[in-house]
C-alpha cells in the first residue's frame, strides 16, 4: 500500500469481494475499523451493486448514520430508517426497447428488475440467489408498469457468461449503462449516466467533499468509474485484473481484511 499522506474526508467502499469476506460475512476487525473511522470524523458510504433489500443485514457495518448507494448508484438508501430516499430509474420506453432487442437478438434471455419496493422477475428468469418472499412475478418484465426499475437484470443460460455480457453490451449500446459486478453472467443495466462514480460524486457534492478528499475501495469492473473518480483508489488483492491495473494502490484481499488494514493505518496518522 502506498496511499496519499493526506487523510480523506470520506471513504467509499464496495461490499461483495471487497469489504465483505467471500462467505458474505463482515469481520469484527472490519466493523471496529469502520466505527473508529466514524469516531475520527471521517464519513463512510457503501457503494454497491446490491439492491436496498440486501443492505439491512449490514446495518451494523456503518451504524445508524450510514448511507448506502445501491444498485450501482440507482438508489440512495438510509440505513437507519430502512428506506430509499432518492432514485434514478430507467425510462419505461427505453426498457421496452432494450428488452425487446435482447430477446430478439439473444433468444432465451430472461429479465428481472430491482425497484424501490423490491425485486420483480419474469417466471423464466434464472436466479442466482434465492428469491425474496415478496417477489413480484410476470411473464414479461416490461409489462409491470406500476413502478420503474432502478436496475434491469438479464441472464441467458444458453451462452457462456463472457459471450452473453459481450453480446448484450453490443445490443444495448448507450441506451443503458451495462455493468458487471461478478455475479455469474448477470448483466446489470442502469439508466444512462447512472454509475457508482456518478452516485458517489453527487453524494459528495451535497456534503461539500471534493474527489481529492475521497478514498475508494473495489474489486470488479463496475467499481472502475468510482475508483477513477476518487482522489485515492485501492484494489483488493483478489480484484479483477483490470481493477488492479487501474487502481492507484493495492491492499490485501477481502478474506484478509484488506480494507480494514488500510483504515487502521490511516487512523494512526
What topology does this entry show?
Blueprint: E1 10-13, H1 15-19, H2 28-39, E2 43-47, H3 59-62, E3 67-70, E4 75-78, E5 83-87, H4 92-105, E6 110-115, E7 118-122, E8 136-138, E9 149-155, H5 161-172, E10 177-179, E11 187-190, H6 196-206, E12 214-218, H7 224-229, E13 232-236, H8 241-246, E14 249-251, H9 258-267
Parallel strand pairs: 1-2, 1-12, 2-3, 7-8, 12-13, 13-14
Antiparallel strand pairs: 3-4, 4-5, 6-7, 6-9, 9-11, 10-11
Descriptive overview:
It comes from Marihabitans asiaticum. GO terms for molecular function: magnesium ion binding; phosphatase activity. InterPro entries: HAD-like_sf, HAD-SF_hydro_IIB, HAD_sf. This is Cof subfamily protein (Haloacid dehalogenase superfamily)/HAD superfamily hydrolase (TIGR01484 family). The chain is 30% helix and 23% strand. The chain is an alpha/beta fold and 269 residues long. The chain folds into 2 domains: 10-87 and 194-267, Rossmann fold; 92-190, Hypothetical Protein, Haloacid Dehalogenase-like Hydrolase, Chain: A, domain 2, CATH 3.30.1240.10. Helix 2 packs parallel to helix 9. The longest helix is centred in the middle third of the chain and has 14 residues, at 92-105. It starts with 9 loop residues before the first strand and ends with a helix.
